Amino acid sequence: MSVFFSSTVNLLKTKTTKSLKTTTIPLTFYYYYNNLTSTRNKSQSTSIPKKQLRIRDHAYDNYMEVEKKTRKVLKFQPLILSQRNQTIPISRLDILSRRIGFKQLEAGKFILKFPHVFEIYEHPVQRILYCRLTRKALLQIEQEKQAMDAQIPDAVTRLRKLLMMSNTGRLRLEHVRIARSEFGFPEDFEYSVILKNPQFFRLFDAKETRNKYVELVERDPSLAVCAIERVREKEYRERGIDAEDVRFSFIVNFPPGFKIGKYYRIAVWKWQRLPYWSPYEDVSGYDLRSLEAQKRMEKRAVAVIHELLTLTVEKKITMERIAHFRLAMNLPKKLKEFVLQHQGIFYVSTRGNHGKLHTVFLREAYRKGELVEPNDLYLARRKLAELVLVSPRKANVDRELVSYRKGRVGDEMGQVRRVYAENGFNNFGVEGDVGGDGEGADDLNSNLGSDVDHGPGNLFDLCSFALAGHECNAHIAAYMK
Fold first, then answer.
1. Is 175 helix (H, G, I), strand (E, B) or coil?
2. What is the pLDDT of residue 256?
3. Is the pLDDT of residue 437 over 70?
4. β-strands 201-205, 212-216: how paired?
5. 314-318 long-range contacts, Cβ below 8 Å, gap at least 24?
6. Which end of the chain is more exposed for a tag (fewer CB within 10 A), N or C?
């Protein structure tokens, strides 16, 4: 009996010890395995993580908020300029504005917000309100047109480079037409850019789809140089960076608030050294099934988007415009997620159109919300943004300032006449009323509150100088004549 009891006790001891071992060993192994796999995943990561938190940059978002207003203003300008005498009644403007997406009675409220662009006046005979563009707005349109015509040779070069980046050397004409404003092509680019240069381009209709295409006649090796390659050469010569580090690298400027960890920094460093094929190189003959080839194609897609942005006028383009060239330039399907992987190179803004459009900026081309190397067409478009940003209160202050200066000039000149009459100086040769607007005044300028004439300031200076000494009498008389 004692033997049986001892054997059962030993058996229970072994079972309890085995059960304890089975409960303790997996826990220790679990922690060890997690630590091992986590360190392996962090240390062996050679690509940038796909899912990243998007960090907002307010400089680019504010830029798009201003462009949202200018985009609406640009919809009204053709409506007004297409009318007779370039004027339109407010009632008719409310009706026509429905075609461009405005509701009833919204057009009048909208144009009142921008008095430096639109001018409302009462017709002298019909006694109804009319609307026309201000003188500054007309000058801005003329300046933009002149800048557009002057850069047509550059537009020809940009279109040739676009066609060289495509797989077949051709693009749909409709896709180019949709993105013509971003690339600085004029409205009649089909004639002024394509048909006027038959040595570079050829138009044809596809038999299968009946779509019109523009095709490159001959590739020019001198144009097959990316903008990033020039930047690399400049960085290499000025800063003396290692040639192996700068050979395939891009300029990376992360947005403020972007957290860069140790392993993420290592992944970016490895990605910068990864070789890739040029956007202007034909990759149809390469075997793209290997993992190394896929990595090169992903980096080539970054170079293609980078080159597209450098060819634009404002170094920005909407994601939807880029998607039109996706198949022709071997870009990935999930384009938005792909661009968000490289927030140090590009910035994606959802402002400007209620989140429906995604605008891609080239970060290295901007500094504090302004283009680093502006061109004439960009400056002409920014003039319209400056007119839009001026508040209506500033326009009212300008009108009051004009009327105040006119009255002030009359009072000052009356005092000058009285002083010289009392002193016996009758040779003050002034005829007419000084407080008037003067001869040859512009009708647009007389009704514009935004266009302030700064001439009376010089007149005040001369009058005070005349009161101080008698020797300037002849100069003032000559000036007033």
1. helix
2. 85
3. no
4. antiparallel
5. 314/182, 314/371, 314/378, 314/381, 315/361, 315/362, 315/365, 315/366, 315/371, 316/182, 316/359, 316/360, 316/361, 316/362, 317/179, 317/182, 317/359, 317/360, 318/182, 318/357, 318/358, 318/359, 318/360
6. N
- Assign 479 to helix, strand or coil: helix
Say if residue 282's pLDDT is above 60. Answer: yes
Tell me the one-letter amino acid at 472: C
Sketch the domain layout of the chain as residue ranges: 1-44, 70-142, 152-221, 226-374, 392-480
Count of CA atoms in the C-beta half-sphere (13 A) of 238 = 6
The answer to whether residues 442 and 134 touch, using CB atoms and an 8 Å cutoff, is no
Helix (H, G, I), strand (E, B) or coil at 71: helix
- CB-based contact 232:246 (threshold 8 Å): yes
Task: Provide long-range contacts, Cβ within 8 A and 24+ apart, for 463-466.
Answer: 463/412, 463/413, 463/416, 466/416
| Nearest C-alpha neighbor of 444 from the set 121, 211, 64 | 121
Helix (H) or strand (E) holding 214: strand 212-216
How far apart, in whole angstroms, are the C-alpha atoms of residue 316 and residue 351?
A: 13
256: its two tokens: 């403020």
Read off the pLDDT band of 39 (50, 70, 90): very low
Instruction: For residue range 373-398, list pLDDT tens digits in order.
Output: 999 999 999 999 999 998 776 655 55
CB atoms within 10 A of CB 416: 19
DSSP-derived letter for residue 53 is P
Residues 328, 330, 336, 342: what is their CA dihedral angle, to the nearest 10 degrees?
A: -130
Q: Amino acid identity of 307? A: E
Q: Which pTM was predicted? A: 0.72
Query: What letter would DSSP give residue 111?
Result: H
In whole angstroms, what separates CA 400 from the centre of its chain? 35
Q: What is the pLDDT of residues 297-324, one digit of tens each?
A: 999 999 999 999 999 999 999 999 999 9
DSSP secondary structure letter of residue 349: E
What is the DSSP pairing of strand 316-318 with strand 359-362? antiparallel
User: Cα dist. 453→22, 93, 151, 391 in Å?
Assistant: 93, 30, 33, 19
Architecture, CATH, for domain 70-142: Orthogonal Bundle (1.10)
Strand, coil or helix: 340:
helix
392-404 pLDDT, tens digit each: 766 555 544 444 3
Single-letter residue type at 322: I
Amino acid identity of 305?
A: I
Residues 102, 272: Cα–Cα separation, whole Å? 48
- The CATH number assigned to the domain with range 152-221 reads 3.90.1150
